[in-house]
Design brief:
The complex is a heterodimer. Helix content of chain A is 43%, strand content 15%. By secondary structure, chain A is of the alpha+beta class. In chain A, a hairpin with a 2-residue loop joins strand 1 and strand 2. In chain A, helix 4 crosses helix 6 and helix 7 crosses helix 8. Chain A is globular, with a radius of gyration of 20 Å. Chain B is globular. Chain B contains 14 helices and no strands. Chain B is mainly alpha-helical. The chains are: A alpha+beta, B mainly alpha. Chains A and B meet through helix 12 of A and loops of B.
């Protein structure tokens, strides 16, 4: 679909994922982001403002703990929520400085174990775990219960994906008014914070019977009013960089960052195979339980990364 | 298993079924065989062909794409037996199979013996104990996942009766997660074992137990020398069904732990699924499936042959 007119509206974070060489291979119908969703009432009761730097986040967690709340829900059963932390921290600590790190990793110039940024990502996460800011017994808590803990006011915040925010607001007594979102800070400079974004793609089968009709349908979807209709109906971010008003209030706080291009792709979208992510999910649980160390986990991920694209 | 059931049915009706009568010199018509052909063809298409094709793919590097898979010999099998996570899954599978089979059989037999009595509430109790077996495994897994969370009802109940010390992170602590999964499976299926044993107990003639009693046999002796031997056909069925279902366990693990924490509850079926549908390594996944099939076949065959030696007829 390289010749389609909408390819000029591909957001930068999405262009990299939609292309192979100089060819555009797919149309992004919508985009998701990883955000910190928080309970506004809990924050207000503890006198906390939305943190914009790492040390502000630590202070907020300390204040929540002092108020008798669990600062951060970390529902690690299944491992899915563990990866959100790595992608969110890496957006700022890895991809902001070196957006082409995966080319370096593929060429063997660096690796998870060698890269300072990736080591810092895992180090930051451990900082929160060791300070006792996460849900107790996190490895036995399913995602659904993590969200309910935040909605119910026992826990302050949860790092999750934007499609989970509507579910979270449904759980909350006051609905959308109770839940807010912010980008996870990773450094002491708020302006450095990046937000991870990932599109959902639609592709056309080049060997299909109705290729032209399918391409025409993508052109139809690419009209600004249809980009808006899809995004607002699905509660996601618009897939194309066109002038669209997002009606999901949960996404409004992060729109300036998205529109300003302060984004990065989910890291796993750039990895060469699914086993790197699977290792992060499973060995990551062992790492969280202190059964293996950070260098061991990173070495395992490097082993899978080195296997390349199957 | 069907062989055992047939023989059990024969026993209950008071003897072996009569052999089919065949008149000498008469040629069997071939028409009936033609009627069987469509069913046989369908069976070959949906069972035999996929099974054989799956076994063939186990020796290839098939990734599920249209490109032709390459023959890799025994590479998939050597990877399976040399990867620590795969070996851990194999260990977990065998541990689940042995623990589930032994404990579930003992509990099922105990329940059957207790409820094969004149107890007024026996029908209600039988229904209650059997009820979990009627739940779909996935539904049951979701329920127990909730019950076993650190702040869930089980820990809440322990805390309420002053047993806080026994509270655990049942599914989140790697050292006890597998035990929790085994416990849940036994909880669900012990009722089914009980029903099979109850059927077996009802097939034991009262006169045999009475004769043993008149001969001076104590209650434990009557159980050991009369009841237990006559329950062996039921035991064969129970052990075979439990062993086979626990070796290929998937649903409950998938729902309750996803194989975690880490690799603590991963089974062969789980890695078979992940390798195929997460990693796209269909050839390797087929090799795991083949090993699992051979494992089930070997265990079931050994068990059936071993147990038949202990079976007696009334």
């Amino acid at each position: 679909v390289s010749q389609a007119s909408w390819t000029s509206s591909l957001p930068e974070d999405t262009r990299k994922l939609a292309t192979s060489g100089d060819k555009v291979l797919a149309f992004p119908v919508g985009r998701n982001a990883i955000v910190m969703a928080y309970n506004k009432k809990v924050f207000a009761a503890a006198g906390i403002a939305v943190p914009t730097t790492w040390s502000e986040l630590l202070k907020a967690c300390t204040a929540l703990k002092a108020a008798g709340k669990t600062p951060i829900a970390n529902p690690l059963q299944g491992g899915v929520y563990l990866q959100f932390w790595m992608y969110a921290l890496a957006a700022t600590m890895v991809y902001a400085d070196n957006p082409d790190i995966d080319a370096d990793m593929t060429a063997g110039r660096t690796s998870f174990a060698k890269d300072k940024g990736w080591n810092s990502v895992f180090g930051k996460y451990l900082e929160l775990r060791d300070a006792g800011f996460f849900t107790e017994g996190a490895l036995g808590v399913p995602p659904d219960q993590g969200l309910q803990a935040v909605a119910g006011g026992n826990t302050g915040m949860v790092l999750t994906v934007t499609p989970a925010v509507p579910q979270l607001t449904k759980f909350a007594k006051g609905g959308a008014a109770d839940i807010g979102v912010f980008a996870l800070p990773a450094t002491e400079n708020a302006a450095e914070t990046r937000i991870p974004v990932a599109p959902d793609f639609v592709a056309v089968n080049a060997e299909g019977k109705n290729v032209e009709a399918a391409k025409g349908f993508l052109d139809f979807l690419a009209k600004p009013e249809n980009v808006a209709a899809y995004a607002n109906t699905m509660g996601v971010l618009p897939g194309l960089d066109v002038d669209v008003k997002v009606t999901n209030p949960g996404l409004e706080p992060i729109r300036p960052m998205i529109d300003g291009g302060r984004t990065a792709p989910y890291a796993n979208y750039l990895w060469p195979n699914g086993d790197v992510q699977q290792t992060l999910l499973q060995s990551g649980q062992q790492w969280y339980a202190k059964s293996i160390t950070t260098p061991q986990l990173l070495a395992q991920m490097d082993t899978e990364y080195a296997k390349g694209n199957p | 298993v069907t062989d055992v059931l047939e023989r059990a049915a024969g026993q209950r009706s008071g003897g072996s079924p009569a052999p089919p009568v065949q008149r000498a010199g008469r040629v069997r018509p071939s028409t009936p065989y033609w009627f069987v052909l469509p069913a046989l063809g369908l069976y070959a298409l949906v069972v035999l062909y996929p099974t054989v094709a799956g076994a063939v793919y186990a020796f290839t590097d098939w990734t599920g794409r249209r490109t032709a898979p390459a023959f890799v010999g025994l590479d998939n099998f050597s990877e399976l037996f040399s990867t620590s996570s795969a070996l851990s899954a194999l260990r977990n599978t065998l541990l689940i199979a042995v623990c589930t089979t032994v404990v579930q059989t003992v509990i099922g037999l105990a329940l059957a013996l207790a409820l094969h009595s004149a107890l007024a509430s026996r029908n209600l109790l039988r229904t209650l104990f059997f009820a979990p077996a009627l739940l779909p495994p996935v539904v049951m897994g979701v329920l127990w996942q909730y019950l076993l969370t650190p702040t869930g009802p089980l820990n809440g109940a322990l805390s309420a009766v002053g047993l806080d010390g026994l509270s655990q992170n049942w599914l989140g602590e790697p050292s006890i997660a597998l035990g929790s999964v085994i416990g849940v499976i036994i909880w669900q299926n012990a009722g089914l074992t009980m029903v099979i044993y109850l059927a077996g107990l009802q097939g034991i003639p009262d006169e045999l137990l009475e004769a043993a009693e008149i001969d001076g046999a104590s209650r434990p002796q009557r159980f050991r020398y009369v009841t237990l031997p006559l329950l062996m056909p039921a035991t064969t069925i129970v052990l075979s069904l439990t062993l086979i279902s626990s070796l290929k366990l998937f649903d409950q693990v998938f729902v309750m732990t996803g194989g975690g924490p880490g690799y603590a509850t991963e089974t062969l079926s789980m890695i078979m699924y992940k390798e195929a549908f997460v990693s796209g390594r269909y050839g390797y996944s087929a090799a795991i499936a083949l090993v699992l099939t051979m494992l089930v076949f070997a265990f079931a065959l050994f068990q059936l042959r071993a147990l038949r030696r202990f079976e007696v007829e009334t």
